[in-house]
Amino acid sequence: MKLFQQLLVAPAALGLLAPVAATASELNLDGVNKYASEEQVTSISQFSDVKPTDWAYQALSNLIERYGCVAGYPDGTYKGGRAMTRFEAAALLNACLDRVTEVTDELKRLMAEFEKELAVLKGRVDGLEAKVGELEANQFSTTTKLKGIATFVIGGASNPIPGVVQDPVTGDIVVEGGGEQVTFNYDVRLIFDTSFTGKDLLRTTLRSGNFGSSAFGAGPTALEVAFDEGVDADVVSINRLFYQFPIGSSITATVGAKVRQDDMLGMWPSVYPSDSVLDMFTYAGAPGAYNLNLGGGFGLTWKDQGVNVSVNYVSNEAVVGDSQLGLGKGDTVTAQVGYTASNWGAAFVYTYTNSDGQAILAPGSTALVNFGSLLPYESNNIGFSGYWQPSEAGWVPSISAGFGYGRANTNIIGDVDLWSWMVGLQWSDMFVKGNDFGIGLGMPQWADESGAEGNFAMEFWYKFQVTDNISVTPAFFFIDGRGAGISNGSSDTSVGGLLKTTFKF
Questions:
Q1: pLDDT tens, residue by residue, 53-103
Q2: Sign of CA dihedral 497, 434, 191, 349
Q3: What pLDDT, in 10s, does the model give residues 291-335?
Q4: What is the DSSP string of 32-53?
Q5: Which residues are registered as beta bridge partners of 360?
Q6: What is this structure's pTM?
Q7: Burial degree of 301 (CB within 10 A; 0-12, 13-18, 19+)
Q8: Rounded to whole angstroms, how far apart are CA atoms 14 and 6?
């Protein structure tokens, strides 16, 4: 069916849903193709809501059997009791014109009666086609879409525990952060998604930030958005570069020079948080297994009817770019089995790590800092995580929870057991539609052989969705680091607050 004819047919379906009169400017053209593509019925018996006792039964039957120009709704109904506008009448008339072999006087009068409505619709179509042509002529690429995220963070923390980063040029290990301070930082990401076949994906991400020496750049107080390429701030670098493509109908392959572990997983077993704050709450409760290792790698994912299985490998020789060294970041092999339903999901994951000693501090953890620096090790890590979401937004929150355990063997201190857990609660549309409220609590990864009792962390945040593209999030957090055996100044705890503004374009 031609585009002009599609636009004439569509209002017959869309207008019946609203019995008030419609003008051409009020027509919802998004549903045009869907309605116009519906098959014409061949028998009146196909309509479940039309009965022989209906007063228009015979007239409708004649239109179907003689001209075959009547279409119903996808649910098999005709909805003959709904009111009709002049535009809808014109659309139905146009649908029958191609099937009429003889133009009678009655048809000529009908065409003359709806001449103005037909002209309005045709003018609207011509205008839309001109705009589409202009957009296609001026786009920077026919295969690539650009998405940007810019984040401003202002805030401070009492007694932030310092972290360590590696200078990408000299390879030196540098302690950053620490001390009571208030900072103003930024993070910017430009994401280019390219598809050559419509089913594949080439992702290139450019990123820059200046969180390296801030209160939120390293250690337990590190934010998820905190980024600094080594010790040099404001350097734009390639943060992602990988290619995904399908193999058959159920398998997806990923290969990249800079790909992260979760880029190659069939699912992420957590819906917390929608607006991230502390980095430690973004590992689904198992930072040893879900270590988000970033480097060269490849992986396969199989999906079928909610079940997914993923296997991937990532090699990271120099741990830089996230302002902290992470236990589990070296050469990693990960296997995950998961299941997703309409409002819940769960996954079991196993990760093997072999590090040459460039990584000792778990993400968001302080567990192994007091053991010295640069300990070669290997570890076996497991995690079980899941989530549940209510069917409608309200006073019942979504719940995400996870547990992690690992066994690390170092060549200096021997075997170490690593434990972690987290629970995240999130209320969507809290107080105002589009705004979210969240609470995260848990225990970052710690080692019981150190004599520690485990540390504890908690965060609160509320996201104001100012516009579709701008959100403002105030957040507060508390971290008890005494279980890690670390003291940084006058206290073993850290308390902080921040205001984060996110721009999406």
A1: 777 777 777 777 776 777 777 677 777 777 777 666 776 766 676 566 556
A2: positive
A3: 899 999 999 999 999 999 999 999 986 443 333 334 446 789 999
A4: HHHHHTSPPPS-GGG-TT--TT
A5: none
A6: 0.68
A7: buried
A8: 12
Domain boundaries, the chain: 3-138, 144-504
Which tokens in the block code for residue 347?
A: 């996954």
Where do we find the tokens 């308390």? 495
Please tell me the distance from the alpha carbon of residue 231 to that of residue 320, in angstroms, as a whole number. Answer: 9
CA distance 440 to 347: 20
CA distance 333 to 331: 7
Residue entry with tokens 């002009």: 4
- Given CATH 2.40.160.10, say whether it is the number of domain 144-504: yes
Instruction: Say if CB 434 and CB 274 are below 8 A apart.
Output: no
Distance (Å) of CA 16 to CA 27, 79, 122: 12, 8, 21
Contacts for 357-360: CB closer than 8 Å, 24+ residues apart: 358/166, 358/317, 358/318, 358/319, 358/325, 358/329, 358/330, 359/319, 359/325, 359/326, 359/327, 359/328, 359/329, 359/330, 360/325, 360/327
Locate tokens 């493509």: which residue?
Answer: 245
**Could you tell me which residues come within 8 angstroms of residue 485 by beta carbon, excluding any fewer than 6 positions away?**
370, 450, 451, 452
H helix count then E strand count, the chain:
6, 18
